[in-house]
Amino acid sequence: MADPKGFLTTKRENAKHRPVFLRLKDWREVYEESTTAEFRAEAGQKQAGRCMDCGIPFCHQGCPLGNLIPEWNTLVWREDWKRAADRLHATNNFPEFTGTLCPAPCESACVLGINDDPVSIKRVEVSIVDRAWDEGWITPQVPATRTGKRVAVVGSGPAGLAAAQQLSRAGHDVVVFERADAVGGLLRYGIPEFKMEKARLDRRLAQMRAEGTEFRTGVDVGVDVTAAQLRAEFDAVVLAGGATAWRDLPIPGRELAGVHQAMEYLPPANRVAAGTLDRSPIHAEGKHVVVIGGGDTGADCVGTAHRQGAASVTQLEIMPKPPEARADANPWPTYPLLYRVTSAHEEGGERVYSVSTTEFVGDAGGAVRALRLAEVELVDGRFTPVAGSEREIPADLVTLAMGFVGPEKGALLADLGVDLDPRGNVARGQDFQTSVDGVFTAGDMGRGQSLIVWAIAEGRSAAAGVDAYLTQRSVLPRPIEPTDRPLV
Ligand SMILES: Cc1cc2nc3c(=O)[nH]c(=O)nc-3n(C[C@H](O)[C@H](O)[C@H](O)COP(=O)(O)OP(=O)(O)OC[C@H]3O[C@@H](n4cnc5c(N)ncnc54)[C@H](O)[C@@H]3O)c2cc1C
Ligand code: SF4
Fold it and tell me: Are 299 and 345 in contact (CB under 8 A)?
């Protein structure tokens, strides 16, 4: 156990954010501690000491990866950071991705959270991995023997990367195909630098390359490489192409200039932050920005618009404002649906709930100038406009952040002939294998729009399935089954 009295003597401390006026001047991570590893480590140790090492650690259940949270909390408290890093990496290939980006369902399931603030698990996680990188403990794990089997991974988001790393370490020759010009999936071109600096991604990719994983970027599989070529060249295939088909809003005025999908708006902003583009072609400077959709993607648009110097930022959400405390129907240890203030929301802007957009209003030049919305209420399970509540708000730039409907149904899936499930995702059975022998799937492509922690867990489990398929035995871990769902 960590500090036996830690939960009584130490209060929870969240990671501190840099002052808003400073962080809006750059794209760097919002966290203050990222510049001072020692402070981060010290605070992390105190926070780890709050862990009660419960007989039944519900946090294990909350974390899709099954992270060994009480074990590494104890090791951190004892200042045995090296072993803590080993225990962390036993279940998670990329703790710096989850340590910065995960919504931490483990913390919602922490027993201390029943009547106090839960252990700041995510913060301890990132403290451990930061320390491990600083100390040089994270090195390539090159397999002692190679199997001679070849595996293609299509898509380089967290699911594809986790699958590729597991399979390379099992001795297979792995090639990751990515249609974008750089590796990382949504970690690279969706999630902004201020949430996770891409240097964190790049040093992992260097580790993976040194372990033998090959990356081929700018290759749209199904177009530049056919499904038949893929099957001929590789012994197994992992489809990890994500759920990139976005939901649209087909209302009057949708065709106006200045109305964009979030994933049209965010990638060029990320390129500017990376220094590969001078100025985004979709820029918020001096504009009234309206973001439609209240989730993670919407918050990323809000933070990006602030950094670009928007005149105003308004985020619209059709759902009612969530409660500040758990509702009775949403008890511990389930993931609480609460009102959350992300770092982007701390930076300003207005959040408007229970509204639906009815029309985009254009100017004489065909550009959007306003947005017409109406308040809504639930009538017979449907959101229905409230009579007389319609109003216009100024809008020179609108981003649609309304989620994703599943994987793109392009040549890749059609030519491989994989079955889809009733929700339009790639259907997978035991071991994450699709309906086609030797073709597996992991991440959002099979699960639908989800989270990084689930993508890594799926990548690890699918890798175990592929390894068993190729070698008839596998010692790789399987943190989840295809049917596992979050605790909600
Ligand atoms: C803007 C945004 C912010 C988010 N923020 C968070 C967050 O803070 N925390 C969190 O937990 N989750 C967040 N998410 C969700 C999270 O990013 C995804 O759940 C996760 O990235 C899914 O991983 P994946 O590997 O399945 O797919 P992706 O990350 O989508 O990667 C799929 C990759 O496959 C490539 N690809 C597709 N088809 C082909 C093809 N035919 N040939 C070659 N390559 C192909 C794509 O180009 C892409 O790079 C966010 C999502 C978005 C959109
Ligand atoms: S990966 Fe997410 S759920 Fe798991 S321990 Fe880390 S923050 Fe918690």
Answer: yes
